[in-house]
Design goal:
The chain has about 280 residues and is of the alpha/beta class. It has one domain: 3-Layer(aba) Sandwich (Protocatechuate 4,5-dioxygenase, Chain B), CATH 3.40.830.10. The protein is about 35% helix and about 20% strand. The strands form 2 sheets. It has an 8-stranded mixed sheet with strand order 6-3-7-2-8-1-10-9, with helices on both faces. A hairpin with a 7-residue loop joins strand 9 and strand 10.
């Protein structure tokens, strides 16, 4: 059967992609951030999955305010990098895994989670920046990717508890797939940041690091965090962190996961960047 072996958590700040695309990674401002992902790139080379299930949020490219699915799973064979207003990023197209994606959709919907099936969409920085941080600038991404978009742009957005339980349903779906596949699940977005209003530029490093601690050790309790607390403590865009619960919920229950890497850095375009790699223990 297929199995989820590890989860990766990372911010997906668009300026990170621009820094890579424009050759700015060695500049003093950006160098400390990219240094924090050196271990991660080597880890991924040594632990290459067969499929990455990548949880992200669309930034009004594939979905407009006219139609916003709460959860949407990509079942296409491939996905083109989106033009977000300044041309598409110069990164490889994303190859999907329609068979596993369709199986997950079937299983999760039968498990009472409503998913939107997407057979065609472009993918924006929410998906391509995490791939770039973990893979560098390859000619092709190292494996197929299943995009899973979550609405954290327009309220109402799903709760952390809902996302944690959805991750558990995704794990069950993967483990019922009749092929020996090594699957990683990635949760992206966050950490604390606010892009507009009087609190624009807000970063709460203490709250962010406590979130990282608790995500590893007590995800069930952390999943009860209210939307109001996210907005108050982590800024209006800090709500993206609910997507990390999908990846955490997909990890094996019982024995705690092994933390292979942790990194936190500010600022990156006035945003806090958080990163974790967790491995399931046999």
């Amino acid at each position: 059967m297929a199995k989820i072996t590890a989860s990766v958590y990372t911010s997906h700040v668009p300026a990170i992609g621009a820094a890579m695309d424009l050759g700015k990674t060695e500049e003093p401002y950006w160098q400390p951030l990219f240094k924090g992902y050196e271990f991660s790139k080597q880890w991924l080379r040594e632990n290459k999955p067969d499929v990455i299930f990548l949880v992200f949020n669309d930034h009004a490219t594939a979905f407009s305010l006219e139609m916003i699915p709460t959860f949407a799973i990509g079942c296409a064979a491939e996905y083109t990098p989106a033009d977000e207003g300044w041309g598409p990023r110069p990164v490889p197209k994303v190859i999907g895994h329609p068979e596993l994606a369709s199986h997950i959709a079937q299983s999760v919907i039968q498990d009472d989670f409503d998913l939107t099936i997407v057979n065609k969409m472009d993918v924006d920085h929410g998906l391509t920046v995490p791939l770039s941080l973990m893979c560098g600038q390859p000619q092709a991404w190292p494996c197929p990717v299943i995009p899973f978009a979550v609405n954290v742009v327009q309220y109402p957005v799903p709760s952390g508890r809902r996302c944690l339980n959805l991750g558990r349903a995704i794990r069950k779906a993967v483990e019922s797939y009749d092929e020996d596949l090594n699957v990683q699940i990635w949760g992206t977005g966050g950490m604390s940041h606010q892009l507009q209003g009087p609190r624009a530029g807000l970063i709460n490093a203490e709250w962010d690091n406590r979130f990282l601690d608790r995500l590893v050790t007590e995800p069930d309790a952390l999943a009860g965090t209210s939307h109001l607390e996210y907005v108050r403590e982590a800024g209006s865009e800090g709500i993206e962190l609910v997507m990390w619960f999908i990846a955490r919920g997909a990890m094996s229950e019982g024995k705690p996961p092994k933390q292979r890497h942790r990194f936190y850095h500010v600022p990156a375009s006035n945003t806090a960047v958080g990163h974790l790699i967790l491995e399931n223990q046999a």
